[in-house]
Design brief:
- The protein is an alpha+beta fold.
- The protein folds into two domains: 2-192 and 372-377, 2-Layer Sandwich (Ribosomal Protein S5, domain 2); 196-367, GHMP kinase, C-terminal domain (Alpha-Beta Plaits, 2-Layer Sandwich).
- The chain contains eleven helices and 13 strands.
- The chain has helices at 2-13, 85-99, 123-138, 145-160, 167-174, 220-233, 244-249, 256-280, 284-301, 307-318, 344-359; strands at 18-27, 39-40, 42-55, 60-65, 70-75, 107-113, 179-184, 190-194, 202-208, 323-326, 334-340, 364-367, 375-376.
- The chain has a six-stranded mixed β-sheet, with helices on both faces.
- A hairpin with a 4-residue loop joins β4 and β5.
- α2 (85-99) packs across α3 (123-138) and α3 crosses α5.
- The longest helix has 25 residues, at 256-280.
- The chain binds alpha-D-galactopyranose (GLA).
- The site of alpha-D-galactopyranose has 11 residues, from α5.
């Protein structure tokens, strides 16, 4: 990928730049908890974005998306927003840096990535983090890593229209090879957890349903609004820390839908903590049981699953897979599966054939390799 980027950069700009990369992410458990001030448990993966960048001495950004074969040129003022969706991410990152007082100028760039788009693996966070990290280095801005993650998140809020939490950008900036991270999204304290399921005889694999997940203009923001309404009625800033007793006490003041959304979030908060504890003991059976609970909570109460992903979780259960659930924001994308090594081949085979019979195509199998987040490449 780096070679192709370099060739294109040379052709377009007749020069060479520096290389930066960042990663997509998985999340073992803790879905839709981030914007509720709860816990998440993600890790960066070996699929991400790479960008070559060189300052160009102007006030313009000249950007080329290699995978789409599209070029965009834009200024750095608010009114200069580009039309192309992908360019809005780069523009947004620039604007958010400028809003924070960062003194940046024009640059040339070519980028490419291998995070499948719309699979719930945060290709957009990978793109944002690559540029936030790179511009911080290239312009010597001295922005700390948390703020780099927030720059990506604000880009989503203000230039893409998704009121996302901090998980994806956090994972993509802080990711560390071989480690998951438990992040408390209220205090922003986090801990690395060495994660090596193979040592215990398990594999972690994603199955991409190829149903495109699209959070822009989606009911994602509605889910967040439901949670905020309930938190407000409970007199809390976030749903974090609320109990089922508290929720039941206000049941007649909220809609049935808001009740279901909050019930899911309250359950999910407990599940993340259970999983961390179980992992500490090497108790993967408990980890897996919680994953299934998350799946059905997301499907029935949070209503962010879809038929195809419910089917994949059912097939997993039938095959004796330890844990399986929809991963990420929902509305399509992947399931994440924790599978005993000896069941792996049979499960993959069965999931492929059964899914293809029902939906006309196989799910894409993506083995998970926990890797480093944002960085400069040599
Ligand atoms: C998307 C958002 C994240 C998070 C997840 C759900 O990936 O970007 O902030 O809310 O959905 O856990």
């Amino acid at each position: 990928m780096k070679q192709k980027i370099a060739e294109k950069f040379q052709t377009l700009f007749l020069s060479e730049g520096e290389f930066f990369a960042s990663a997509g992410r998985i999340n073992l458990i803790g879905e839709h908890t981030d914007y509720n001030g709860g816990f998440v448990f993600p890790g960066a993966i070996d699929k991400g974005m790479i960008a070559e960048i060189a300052l160009n001495g102007t006030k313009k950004v000249c950007a080329y998306a290699l995978d789409l074969d599209e070029y965009s040129e834009f200024g750095l003022n608010e009114e200069d927003a580009p039309d192309q969706g992908w360019a809005k991410y780069i523009f947004g990152v620039c604007r958010e840096i400028i809003k924070r007082g960062g003194n940046i100028a024009g640059f040339n760039t070519v980028f490419s990535g291998d995070v499948p788009l719309g699979a719930g693996m945060s290709s957009s966070a990978a793109l944002e983090s690559t540029y936030a990290y790179a511009l911080n280095e290239l312009f010597n801005l001295g922005i700390d890593k948390f703020e780099l993650a927030r720059i990506g998140q604000s880009t989503e809020h203000n230039y893409v229209g998704v009121k996302c939490g901090i998980m994806d950008q956090f994972a993509s900036v802080f990711g560390k090879k071989g480690n998951l991270m438990r992040l408390d999204c209220r205090s922003m304290e986090f801990e690395y957890f060495p994660f090596d399921p193979e040592q215990y005889g398990y594999k972690l694999v994603l199955l991409n349903s190829c149903v495109k997940h699209e959070l822009v203009g989606s009911p994602y923001n509605d889910r967040r609004a439901s949670c905020e309404r309930v938190a407000k009625i409970l007199g809390q800033e976030f749903l974090r820390g609320a109990t089922m007793e508290q929720l039941d006490a206000v049941k007649d003041q909220i809609s049935e839908e808001d009740y279901m959304r909050a019930r899911y979030v309250i359950g999910e908060e407990k599940r993340v903590l259970d999983v961390c504890e179980a992992l500490g003991k090497g108790d993967y059976e408990t980890v897996g049981a919680r994953m299934y609970e998350t799946h059905w909570g997301m499907s029935k109460d949070y209503e962010v699953s879809c038929e195809e992903l419910d089917y994949l979780a059912e097939v997993a259960k039938e095959c004796g897979v330890t844990g399986s659930r929809i991963m990420g924001g929902g509305f399509g994308g992947c399931t994440i599966n924790l599978v005993k090594t000896e069941l792996y081949d049979a499960f993959i085979e069965k999931a492929k054939t059964a899914f293809a019979e029902k939906y006309g195509h196989e799910p894409v199998v993506i083995p998970v390799v926990i890797s480093d987040g944002a960085r400069k490449l040599a």
